[in-house]
Every structure is written in C-alpha cells, then in structure tokens.
Amino acid sequence: MKKFFPILAFIAVALISLTMAGFAYFATQEAARIKFEATADDALNRIESRIDLHLSLLRSTQALFDARNGEISRSEFKAFFSALDADTNFAGLRGIGYLRLAKAGDEAAVERDMLRDRGVPHAVYPDTSQSWRTPVVLFEPLDPSNESTIGYDMFTEPVRREAIEKAMADDAQHASGLVQLGQDTGAAQTFTGFLVFVRLNVETAPDGINASRSSTSGFLYAAFRARDLFQTALSRTPLLPVNTEVYDGKVDADNLLFQSETPPVASFGDRLLVTRKIIVSGRPWTVLFRPTSAFSQPSSRAIPVMLGLFGLLLAGAIALVARYQERAYDAKSLLHETTEKSLLEKDLMLQEMKHRIKNSITRVLAIARQTAAHATDVKEFSSSFSARLQAMAASQDMLTRSRWQKADLGDLLRIELGQVFGKELPDGILSGPQVLLDETTTQALGLTFHELATNALKYGEAGNSVGALKVDWSFEGRGSGRMLVLNWREAGQKQLEAPAKTGFGTKLIDLNVTRELHGTITRDFRADGLTVEIRIPPPDAGKQTETG
C-alpha cells in the first residue's frame, strides 16, 4: 500500500482540482448564459416597444375615423398623415390605408365613390368568388409607386383575408402573416412585411352593408416593412451584441420576417441560444437571439483552464514529494536489511567455511581409504592419491570461476561430483538438457550438490560405487508455471532412514533451495535408496537448448 501512496495522492489532488475547475467552468458558462439572456430580453423590449409605437399610430387613426363617423376625405386623410412625419418618427411603416367593406356585386358603387373622391377612375381588382370585397380606397403616403394600391381587394389574398376575417369578429387589432408588400399590386419594389387590421364601425350604414355586425363599414390597416422596423428598433445605442431572427409562427425558413446582418459567433453554437415567444396583435411570433462577436463573457474561460492546470501541477508536486519520501524510507529500510543480511551471510560464511573444511578432510580421508584399498604398493597409492587431490583443487578452481560467469548445470554437477568421487565419472550418471545458470543459481546449486554428494559418500551406496548415483533434470510446465525439476537418486541394498537430527548440511541445502532459489525440495528415504526432488523456477541465464 505504501508504494501506491504517491499515485493515490496524485489522483486525489488531481480529482479535487479538476472538480473545482469543472465547477468554475460551469459557473462561467452559467454567468455567460444569464448575461446573454438579459441582453436578449433588452433586445426584445426594444422590438416590442417599437411595434407598440407603430400600433399606437393605427389606434390614433382609428380614433380619428371614429370621431368623424368614418367620413374622412382624401385630403383630410393626407393632411393627417403628413402631420405625423412618418419617415422620421415611424421608420418601417410603409403606410396606412382604409379598406371599404362591400358585398360581392356592389363593386360599381364603390368605384363611383372613388371616382367622385379622386376625380380619377379606379377599378376594384382582381376578380374573385368571395362573398365580400375589401378594396383599398384610401392610402398614405400615396406616391406614384403606390397608386396601383387603390382599388386592390385584399380579401382576395388568403393571408390578408385570414386577418380581415378575424378583425370582422371583434374590435381588436389583428396582424397578418408574412406577406410581400407591393407584390399583388404590381409595384416596382416589394418588401417583406406584415399588416395589422382593425374594424371601423359607424352609427348608420346608408348602403345597407352588413358584416358580423351591421355597423362595420370597413377596416383600417397599417403596412410594415419588417427589415426597416426591426433594424430601427435594434439600432438604438448602445448597440446590443445579438443576432436576431424573427419568425411568423414557428421557426421555418418560409416564415422568416427578419434576420440581423451581423452573424452569430459559431464557437458558441446553440449553447447561448435564447428563444422568446411574443404575441403581436393576436399573431404569435418566435424570436431567436444568438451572441455576436461583440458579446463578452462576464469571466474569462481561461480561469477554469488555469485552475485545472495549477491543480495538476500541485498534484504532481505532492506526488513527487511523497515519492521522494518513499524512496528515502525504502533506502533506509534497504540499508537496514542489507546490513542484517550481510551479518547473516558473514555468520553463514564462517559456518560454511568450517563445515566445508571438515567435509574436505572427510573427502580426503575417504579418497585415501579408497585409494589404499585398491593400491598394490605405496608408489601406486602415492600416485593415485596425489592425482585425486589435484583433481579436487582443479574442480574447486572451476567452481569458483563459475560463480562469476554463466555455468552449465551439467558441468557444475561434474565438478561437484568429481570433487567427491573423482574426475572419472561413469557414463550415464548425468542426463538432462543444457541449462545455463546465473551467478545466484550457480552458487546455490553448487553448495547443494556438494552437500548431497558428501552425504552420498558418507552414508549411501555411492560411497562404495559411484554408479549407484543417478542425476537427471528436465523442464515441466509452460509460461509462468514452468519449473526446472532435478532428481537425485541413490540406489543401495541397505535400509536408509531419515536422520533424527537435522544437521547443518541439510539446513544449508534447504536454505539454498527455498530461500535463494524460491523452490521446493522433497526427500524420500526408501528401502532401496534415497530420492531427492528439487523444483526451482528456470534460471534467467539466457536461451536454454535441449540436448540428449
């Protein structure tokens, strides 16, 4: 757990820092949303105020007609409109007009009245199958481009007719849907816009005209150029950093009344999109607001990023400090462990040296006995005994060198067995694949083989005949479970029994196999001899090749 503390510290501090950065980021986004919504509401108020101002003009015109009971001449209407200075005070207003309500078939009477009032004949157009006719009889400003408006029956056009029918039913104002102003009258220039209608009532109806109420004589209407109207509303200082889209009804390209020229900022996407629904003279509109490049967020987006980076740096610094402390503690622990191990190894080395000297003396005496038993005279004894002592010395020298170089398992066994039984080993006593041993494995197995061979010499049949000893080794398993298995077999006729007391040699063998080599060792004392099985992980000493 201790070694994972720097990682855990880094993760904990990083998570806390990133969480704080996340909260800061979302707070920044929420502040930007609230600020832009306030800006969008300001823009909406400007639009609604401008529209209310224009509609108040229509209400004033209605009041004039009501005061005169609908009897307004062309000259009076023109004078009234001129006094308004519409170009200056009512930008976006195309004009105000009066529609005469007549039944289908009464067009001739309406045309006579227009001729009388204007001195110029105007026909009611276009032809229609509708029951009602609503031709334009008054319109201001009536410049040459608008002259064709006189006589145009708005009831023949579906969008206008829908609004006029609603105006027939009550005294409220009713806006039409999106229309192209001037298109139906053949004007040279057309504009996208809308119209607002309101019913005119008279106390008497001399011509007998009757709509939903018998007092309806016609309709006043105001025509608005959408682009000029909304641009004027939004151009008040200070300019607002909003891109505005106004739709008649639902959001659809065919219903677009107005769109700002300044494009929205693409990086915001629809994240700061503000949608508002308004009602204009009974007509629902949808207004969309998006921020432009002039919109500034209340706080910098770099703050959460800097906070997150600072948190990560802090987490890294804490992890490094923890790591250095851990390394210092590990170094102290390692030093203590090394010191204890060095003392243990020193003591073990002293005991090993004493034990090995005893074994060497025992081997020398055993060689002397065997040599003397087979020698015919002193000269032969001296020659054989000296050769065997020289072999022991040479084998000891080779074993010492093998501790610092890679050693072959078979060669190591020959050296150790040669020290005990002499260099001339019978064929077939050793069998197994070539196995290259590293330094640690060579040292441990060298001592182990030495002890096993010495014990075999002292207590086993191999002391009389080395052919009673067989050693073989092989690999078992695959991957991480692969093991090197070594079998030491001593054959004999005498009954072997497990020793009542464990000597130093046995302890040394067990320590080498289990501690140094992380393996296992089992002994089987049988009537016909001894079997020792040693299982250790394969030494990491290079490529192992199979040999017969």
Automatic annotation (TrEMBL):
GO molecular function, one term: ATP binding
GO cellular component: membrane
Domain CHASE: 68-288
Catalytic activity: ATP + protein L-histidine = ADP + protein N-phospho-L-histidine
Keywords tagged on the record: ATP-binding, Kinase, Membrane, Nucleotide-binding, Phosphoprotein, Transferase, Transmembrane, Transmembrane helix
E.C. code: 2.7.13.3
Transmembrane segments: 302-322
Presence of the UniProt keyword Heme in the record: no
Catalytic class of the enzyme: transferase
Main subcellular localisation: membrane
GO biological process, any: signal transduction
InterPro entries, alphabetized: CHASE_dom, CHASE_sf, HATPase_C_sf, Sig_transdc_His_kinase_HWE
Signal sequence coordinates: none
Localisation: Membrane
Entry protein name: histidine kinase
